[in-house]
């Protein structure tokens, strides 16, 4: 249930609205009084949330002797949200001012979800080659993006645990340091730090040529040692 509420909130509902939507979806049409009683939300807050649901297209008012609320089908609600998102995204991509030249500043990215999103975006933006060193648990999460890069004829080099394999990638087997991640894209951008799900973690992102060169040389040295059998 928590996951359902969380995902409904990500679609723009408040916690009370998501709770009431779940109640309506489970029990069917209900009055505001019934909704408040079932969810233990105060009547005043329940009516505010139900009005919000109707405003956002997640519920409808049902005519009758007693005013009831009916949930919008989840497929319909999600389709509406998808169209809204795509329209907003298209507008922003068309009208947002052109970005300035890439900054060589060092940017800290905190939290596993933010780090994962940044990695996926970096891999998707790759135009020539990328080097990635990470544990299997993380590589599994970006496997589809890596596969797409390979299909786009990008060179993908992995320094990975023995149990991770990816068709089309150049792989060097080694036991990875727990949580450590390094990603270099097109010799222009680097992401380095730690990735640990459900725990505090952070990575450094930069377009600094000096930092990129430093870490690229470090990864090349690791590859040489792996080839010589000095790293297992």
Topology:
Layout: H1 2-10, H2 15-27, E1 30-31, H3 32-39, H4 43-55, E2 59-62, E3 68-71, H5 74-95, E4 106-110, H6 112-125, E5 129-134, H7 136-139, H8 143-151, E6 155-160, E7 170-173, E8 180-185, E9 189-194, E10 202-206, H9 209-227
Parallel strand pairs: 5-6, 6-7
Antiparallel strand pairs: 1-3, 2-3, 4-10, 5-8, 8-9, 9-10
Helix pairs in contact: 1-2, 2-3, 2-4, 3-4
Structural commentary:
- By secondary structure, the chain is α+β, with helices and mostly antiparallel strands.
- It has 2 domains: 2-92, Arc Repressor Mutant, subunit A, CATH 1.10.10; 106-227, Endonuclease Chain A (Endonuclease, Chain A, 2-Layer Sandwich).
- It has helices spanning 2-10, 15-27, 32-39, 43-55, 74-95, 112-125, 136-139, 143-151, 209-227; strands at residues 30-31, 59-62, 68-71, 106-110, 129-134, 155-160, 170-173, 180-185, 189-194, 202-206.
- A hairpin with a 7-residue loop joins β9 (189-194) and β10 (202-206).
- The model has no long low-confidence stretch (mean pLDDT 90).
């Amino acid at each position: 249930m928590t996951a359902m509420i969380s995902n409904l909130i990500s679609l723009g509902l408040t916690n009370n609205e998501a709770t009431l939507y779940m109640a309506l979806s489970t029990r069917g049409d209900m009055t505001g009084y019934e909704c408040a009683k079932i969810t233990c939300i105060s009547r005043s807050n329940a009516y505010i949330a139900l009005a919000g649901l109707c405003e956002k297209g997640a519920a409808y008012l049902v005519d009758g002797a007693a005013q009831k609320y009916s949930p919008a089908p989840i497929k319909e609600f999600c389709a509406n949200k998808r169209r809204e998102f795509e329209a907003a995204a298209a507008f922003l991509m068309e009208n947002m001012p052109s970005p300035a030249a890439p900054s060589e500043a060092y940017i800290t990215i905190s939290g596993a979800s933010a780090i994962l999103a940044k990695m996926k975006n970096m891999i998707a933006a790759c135009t020539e080659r990328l080097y990635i060193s990470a544990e299997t648990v993380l590589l599994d999460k970006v496997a589809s993006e890596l596969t797409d890069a390979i299909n786009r004829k990008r060179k993908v080099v992995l320094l990975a645990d023995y149990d991770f394999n990816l068709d089309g990638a150049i792989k060097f087997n080694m036991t990875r340091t727990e949580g450590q991640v390094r990603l270099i894209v097109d010799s222009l951008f680097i992401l380095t730090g730690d990735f640990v799900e459900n725990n505090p973690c952070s990575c450094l992102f930069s377009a600094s040529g000096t930092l990129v060169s430093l870490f690229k040389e470090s990864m090349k040295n690791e590859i040489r040692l792996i080839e010589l059998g000095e790293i297992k």
